[in-house]
Amino acid sequence: MGLVRTAIRGLSWSMLAAVGQAVLQLVAIVVLSRLVTVEEFGIAAASMVVLSLVVMVSQLGVGPALVQARRLDGADVATAFYLSTALSIVLAAGLFLLAPLVGPLVGLPPDGSYLRLVSMALVLGALSAVATGLLQRRLRFRALALLQLFSYGFGYLGTAVVLAYAGAGAAALIWGQIAQSLLLAIGGYALERHDVRPHRPAAMLASGKKVFRFGSGYSLSQLGNWVGTNGDNLVVTSMLGPVALGLYSRAYQLLVTPAQLIGTVADKVLFPAMSRVQHEPDRLARAYVVANSLVAVVTLPASVLLCVLAPEIVRILLGPGWSGVTLPLQILAVVLLPRTAYKISGSLTRATGAVFGGAWRQWLYAVEVVAACWIGSHWGVVGVAAGASGAIVAHWATMLKFSGRVRPGLVHSVLRAYARSLPTTAVTAAVAVPVAVWLRSYSSEVLTLLGTGSIAVAAGGLTLLLTRRLFQEEFRLLRSGRRPRRAAPAPVPPTPEPADL
Fold first, then answer.
1. Phi-psi domain of 320 (left: phi exceeds 0; alpha: psi -120 through 50; beta: other)
2. Which of 482, 486, 484 has its CA nearest to residue 8?
3. Does the CA dihedral 114-372-367-228 come out positive or negative?
4. What is the rounded CA–CA span in Å between residue 188 and residue 136?
5. What is the phi/psi pair of residue 335, to 5°?
6. C-alpha to C-alpha distance for 78 and 7, rounded to whole angstroms
7. Which residues contact 281 (CB under 8 A, 6 or more apart)?
8. What is the distance between the alpha carbons of residues 36 and 20, in angstroms, rounded to a whole number?
9. How far is CA 480 from CA 16, 181, 420, 459, in A?
10. What is the pLDDT of residue 500?
11. Which region among 35-39, 55-59, 315-319 has the lowest average model confidence (pLDDT)?
12. Separation of alpha carbons 334 and 174, rounded Å
């Protein structure tokens, strides 16, 4: 129960930070969409695609390797720091020199200036990998949550908006990423002053082998995940150009915001918690089912609201020039649950050390995304969104089946957990659709969004309250996250009188 309470409190802090970052992201989208053109958004998105790939390769999975390790000493930490830092410097130098050649491959201008800026963020990201991994391992979610929220708000949002207002264009978004990485590196080391002293060569060699054993499998898996996550962007920018990428990336960003709010937060807490009980299949299976159930009860109604209110969301947040985002957003919103839930399967895979088993499944996902999006690109951005959605569903099913190895009947337990959220989802849809249609005829876009959302959420919440018996296990675990009350001190027994002699 101590681990459960710690995990639930960590989930609360991580969720609070994710909500705060989601709000900041929405503010950034609203402001930057009016300061940066669609083409400039596409250029920045293509640069971030390259950055995410090189960051993943440079860090060798050292952060997750530190989280998953059953035992850890100073030599392991120092070795992980030097490995990730050295490799990031080498790759940053290579990216700086080869930028004029790499840029045109992802639709960037041939001068290469954007990728040279990105190389700065690469080194800074490696400097924070060990500190954030240790914070996660030690379940210091409050410190990690506040650090990430602060670095995003004052780093990315503040820097990007100011530079975009000054006319920096796509470079403003890249400088925002650099500022965020710098604050994350400084703050991470301030919170977790880990060992950076060189140890004996023999000790560091042994530590390097341990880190590389897990990290190589994790990196292989993440590389497949990167291709799967960014394959649609690569197809769009190569087949349809940066303007289409600007539209598609905004639709995907609006979907990813709630997915990150739920799935990434759950992964951040579940991975270290599951790692601590990785040899107890019953506890692993219980945590996996409950996490999927909680994700479903939130994402299924949210998916309905995103589909219904997509026109208002796009016009209010992005402005009238982004109407081409609406239909792709609705298509991607349909797969919000699979997009979020496969992260939980990834947490279970990494916690049990099955990184190579997860790796080839990530590569299968990558092939599915690229193939489906290439086929869909013949119908424009809408076709790419449909292809990406199909690949997400296929990957979710693959990871769910792979997770079933933990205990017999686990897959059926997860599907039953999903079914418990169907009444809430059905009521949300039954209320949201007619209310939105009625409000569009008589009120503004803002009132339609707020009115439909409020009424639908209230109806869904009431349905959840009426069906709460279906979620007894989930509510019991959430309640267990509260701090236990201190027991009243036991009364001191009176001192016995000495016996008469």
1. alpha
2. 482
3. positive
4. 11
5. -105, 30
6. 27
7. 406, 407
8. 23
9. 19, 36, 22, 27
10. 36
11. 55-59
12. 31
